[in-house]
Amino acid sequence: MEAKSTRQGVSKRGAAVGKHPAKAPLIAAAPIAAYDYNPSFSAFVSLFQATPEDRVKLIRKGVKADALVNTSKIMGISRERLFATLNFPAGTVKRKIAQDELLSPDQSERIIGLQKLIGQVESMVTESGNPEGFDPARWIANWLETPCPALGGDKPADYMDTIEGQRIVANLLAMMQSGAYA
To answer: How do the domains of the chain map onto residue ranges?
Structure first.
C-alpha cells in the first residue's frame, strides 16, 4: 500500500515524500522477501514500517526460498543456522531453493518476521542517533545468540521459530530502546 502525497511533501503516514528512501512504501520491501536486494535503501525498514495488511498480502503471496540464503549472507550466519533458528526443514528448503520455489505461508511469515526485526533495529538506531557504520543485520545475528535475562537466560533465537516468539523478541527490542528492563 503506497503512502499518498500531500502538498507539503509529507505522506499521509508522516514520512517525507521522496526524501527518505528508507520510508518507501511496502513495494520497496517486496524485494527483500522476493530477494532482489538493493542496498541503496533499506527494504528491512520498509518491511518493519509496512502495515500488517500489506505484510499479510506478502505472506500469502509467498517468499522465494532464496530469501533465506540472502538473509543469512546479510546477517553473516550460515544457512543451516538460519534454517535451525526459524525451524525450517533443511532438505525441503534446499529443494525449494534449487527449484526456485516459494516458501509456504507459514515459512514466509517466519522469514518476514526476522527481516522485520532487522528493520526494527535499523529504525531504532536511526531514531536514537547516528547509524553510520552500524550493521543491523549482523547485530541481530549476534544478539539473537546472546542469553537474555528478560527471557530467563534463554537466547532470543530460541523464540524465532514461532510468530508469538517473534513478537516477544520484538517487544524486548522495543523495551531496550525505551530503557525498560530487557
So the answer is: 21-178
